[in-house]
Amino acid sequence: MSTGTAKPQPAPGQQRRKAKGPRPKHVPQRTCVACRSTDAKRTLIRLVRTPEGAVAVDPTGKRSGRGAYLCARVRCWERGINEKTLVRALRLDGLTEENRAELLRYADERVPEGPEDEDEVPS
Ligand SMILES: [Zn+2]
Fold first, then answer.
1. Which residues surround ligand 1, an ion (CB under 5 A)?
2. 103: in domain
3. End-to-end CA distance of the chain
């Protein structure tokens, strides 16, 4: 006997289903290892662990390896570097003096002071 395998046809209009709720584009969120605030990727700067066990700045975000993010704010860099949140995020034992100086110099030269400080608002 033949049951006739009639394929259930997709009802017209069902293939293009509308997204429910306010869900715009997917924006990858990253977390700053110093202040733990999340932000869209572009406002955070990526750092990557090199095969040599050092930390390198990865402005393009394309280097391979374990990465961590810091806000584009000098204070997050200083905090991340000096309080070891960065090395911990990258599963390192620590930074060499040279590496630390290099990162702080990068922060000093390339990272903006940042807009209004969020945690310490002068009144
Ligand atoms: Zn931060």
1. 32, 34-35, 71, 76
2. yes
3. 85
Residue 12 lies in a domain: no
Structural domain contains residue 10: no
Residue environment code for 18-41, b if the CB has 16+ CB neighbours within 10 A, otherwise e: eeeeeeeeeeeebbbbbbeeebee
Q: How would you write the pLDDT of the chain (123 residues) with one tens digit per residue? A: 656 666 666 666 555 566 677 777 776 789 999 999 998 766 899 999 999 999 999 999 999 999 999 999 999 999 999 999 999 999 999 999 999 999 999 999 999 886 555 555 445
**CA 117/CA 59 separation, integer angstroms:** 23
Compute the distance from residue 92 Cα to the ligand 1 centre, in Å: 19
Measured in Å, residue 40 CA sits from the centre of ligand 1 at 12
33 CA from centroid of ligand 1 (Å): 7
CATH number at 42 reads 3.30.1230.10
Number of domains in the chain: 1
Output the CA 73–ligand 1 centroid distance in Å: 7
Distance (Å) from CA 50 to ligand 1 centroid: 22
Position 23 in a domain: no
